[in-house]
Amino acid sequence: MPDLLLAESLPASLPDLWAYWAPFRDRVRSAEPTHAHRVLAAWQRARTAAGDEITLVTANVDDLHERAGSERAHHLHGSVFTTTCLSPACPGRVDGDARSDPSTSPCPVCGGATRPGLVLFGEVVDLDAQWAARRMLRQCEALVAIGTSGAVTPPYSWLRYARDVGAPSIQVNPDPDAGDGFDLHVRLEADVAAPLLFET
Asked: What are the Deacetylase sirtuin-type domain coordinates in residue numbering (predicted)?
């Protein structure tokens, strides 16, 4: 892993981090949601209209769930389109993709330097996303993990919450070595599995 993705490398790595992140942001901007994104969004909307509460938590930093039509996606690792203050003590944050070069824009709260609003290695994942997931896991009917290996926290720890309320856990991942601990493994690509699991 490049040093610029380590939290301990800041602030010295900030110019390199912005240089790395800008082309990645451009690739995300030009990407399109997959079939799985669209199926999941349609299912979430249909279940919400029927009175169910569906919590979508993603480890991805893109906005493909939102562009597919998902009403709300909690991002564990931040967003490629969010800019935050370099100072951990400052709440300065700008959401959205309005600025072409956020690296030159000062923090809207303190005027200091900004950084990409993603979780670097060595940082804590987004607490709002974690709490949203834990709250729903305490009353969930099922936990479906799509694309994750399930080997890292917090997703791996969510298995315990689902088990505590008697909810089955399902992993969608074509890798035969991924995800020990799930009740059911669907060894298919997400685009193939999503229509089978989330018919509306």
From this structure: 1-200
